[in-house]
């Protein structure tokens, strides 16, 4: 027995789906001998070899093409496929699928493979295999002038494995991973936090503000005099000095009880400036303007209605002049009440009729004047 022999696993054809055509002249083999012993392979522990041997005498079912990146393969069986030279249809089919595009994979494999079912139907199942191409160095090739050695395409078959389960997503009740504490030989020094730094800065700022307040004479004068009065007050139950004399520790100003003046009110309210008085709108003037506008609107409506009742409508030549005379005369008669209160509609109608009688003459009066 030679060192490298091959065992024939299956010889048959692929049946195309929805047709009676067959891709015949196919044979699957596996290497046996010293190569198999060196790689640790055993035919009894090779599921693909056993499955192909069990399919002898039956046709395999072609399912279609599959991208190698979409499936998980078990290529440890080292099962290769050969095509008979006289099987023209099978050779053309596999050349179109495996040799139409350049091989760019790092493993030297084709991007597409042919999925074959080992069951009795044309449905995908867990026992499917994938036939793909693998670039290998040509055995016994002659030296070439090119830098890259010549390679040949070997057709391999591998089992399709189920995809591994996706990693479990974190649950809401899972414990949060914590970083382990750093181990140090020395004692841990106290670190100054940002809060303590902020408090120290605030305390220094307050102390500086108090120092500035002592330097201002205008603000410190009432406080100084109040302090002198409080220090010079007699103790409860004590006796007053004889002959009304003042002690050595008391000054002439402290002997007289003085009430310090109250601080300026504007000092307690820094947001209010004493030099810029707040300008408040005149609410009464605004109310008077609105009242006058409403009264003039009433006079306008009554004037237009009065002229309309007398047959004088908009569009006549004398309408504007009559309207202006009656409107201005009525407003002048009510000038003392226009900005004080709402005018009475009856009073407005009476005044408008009186002015209309002066300017609008009826037919009887016109004939009498003529």
TrEMBL record:
Transmembrane parts of this sequence: none
Region feature Disordered, mapped onto this chain: 163-220, 232-251
Pfam families xrefs: Sld7_C
Family matches, as InterPro entries: Sld7_C
Domain Sld7 C-terminal residue range list: 292-360
Domain of life from the UniProt record: Eukaryota
Sequence ranges of Basic and acidic residues compositional bias: 201-220
Protein name: Sld7 C-terminal domain-containing protein
Species the sequence originates in: Ceriporiopsis subvermispora (strain B)
Biological classification of the source: Eukaryota, Fungi, Dikarya, Basidiomycota, Agaricomycotina
């Amino acid at each position: 027995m030679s060192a490298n022999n091959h065992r024939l696993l299956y010889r048959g054809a692929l049946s195309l789906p929805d047709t009676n055509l067959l891709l015949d002249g196919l044979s699957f083999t596996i290497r046996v001998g010293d190569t198999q012993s060196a790689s640790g392979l055993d035919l009894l522990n090779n599921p693909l070899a056993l499955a192909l041997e069990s399919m002898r005498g039956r046709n395999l079912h072609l399912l279609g093409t599959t991208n190698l990146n979409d499936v998980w393969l078990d290529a440890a069986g080292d099962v290769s496929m050969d095509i008979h030279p006289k099987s023209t249809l099978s050779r053309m089919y596999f050349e179109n699928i495996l040799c139409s595009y350049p091989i760019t994979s790092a493993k030297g494999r084709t991007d597409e493979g042919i999925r074959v079912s080992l069951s009795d139907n044309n449905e995908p199942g867990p026992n499917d295999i994938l036939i793909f191409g693998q670039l290998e160095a040509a055995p016994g090739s002659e030296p070439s002038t090119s830098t890259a050695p010549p390679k040949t395409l070997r057709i391999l078959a591998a089992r399709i494995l189920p995809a591994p389960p996706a990693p479990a997503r974190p649950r809401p009740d899972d414990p949060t991973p914590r970083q382990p504490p750093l181990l140090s030989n020395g004692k841990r020094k106290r670190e100054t936090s940002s809060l303590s730094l902020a408090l120290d800065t605030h305390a220094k700022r307050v102390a500086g503000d108090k120092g500035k307040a002592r330097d201002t004479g205008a603000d410190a004068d009432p406080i100084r005099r109040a302090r002198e009065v409080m220090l010079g007050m007699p103790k409860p139950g004590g006796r007053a000095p004889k002959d009304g004399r003042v002690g050595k520790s008391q000054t002439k100003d402290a002997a007289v009880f003085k009430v310090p003046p109250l601080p300026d009110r504007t000092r307690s309210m820094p947001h209010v400036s004493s030099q810029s008085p707040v300008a408040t709108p005149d609410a009464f003037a605004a109310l008077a303007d609105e009242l006058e506008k409403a009264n003039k609107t009433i006079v306008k409506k009554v004037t237009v209605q009065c002229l309309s009742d007398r047959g004088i409508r908009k569009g006549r030549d004398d309408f504007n002049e009559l309207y202006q005379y009656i409107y201005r005369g009525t407003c002048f008669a009510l000038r003392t009440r226009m900005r004080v209160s709402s005018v009475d509609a009856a009073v407005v109608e009476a005044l408008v009729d009186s002015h209309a009688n002066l300017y609008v003459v009826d037919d009887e009066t016109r004939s009498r004047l003529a």
